[in-house]
## 1
Amino acid sequence: MCVKKDTLPFLQVLNTIVGEDDFLYFLNQKDLDLDCNLPVEKILFINGLISIIKTKLIPIELYALWMVGANKKKTLDCYGFGHPEPLKKMLCYQKCKEVEQFLKIAGYFNKSKAQVAS
């Protein structure tokens, strides 16, 4: 996961993961401008898309991967791959609890698949 919890995007440089806030801070320190002199409307549109991704698409993806039966089984098989079995089970349990907590806060935990899809 990235440095700041539940924040995307992130950069991976060798074995280090740098979160969104960190590299934006770095770019601001160097006086680099990411908007390339875009008009205000375009910047607002881009920020709106990022907001939709954070508030709608990420919870839907987490719901589909961790709450839907067949998908959850496949996700649990893949999550923690390469770790010994006791650690893998602990990591899966922790991640399930994190996802459940996130979905409760986002309002997706008690929804059915049909409600999430609409």
## 2
Amino acid sequence: MRNFTPRLSAIKDKDGKTLTENEEISNRWKECCSEMYEDNTDEEMKQVESNDKILEPTRSEVEWAVKQLPKGKSAGNDEIHAEMIKASGEQGIDIFHKLCKKICLELVA
């Protein structure tokens, strides 16, 4: 009976082709990591074009959203951890509410 030995020297590229050369594997990992951590802020921020009025979020909606933030996750591109936002308390909720309202106003301007 043959024992199973996991192979750590192979990885698949975007097209599903198996890469076995160390340099190819290294390049694929670099590519994968750079895709994961690249800043897509510009792509995610799309101009809202509509005749519908954008409703400003209420303070309770902002408070609810802050409570829904996951615990123990790493920070995003802004380097702000969810725990920091939650720890900001009522004063933080007020600040985030004002910020959300300002963003909504700028979207329709």
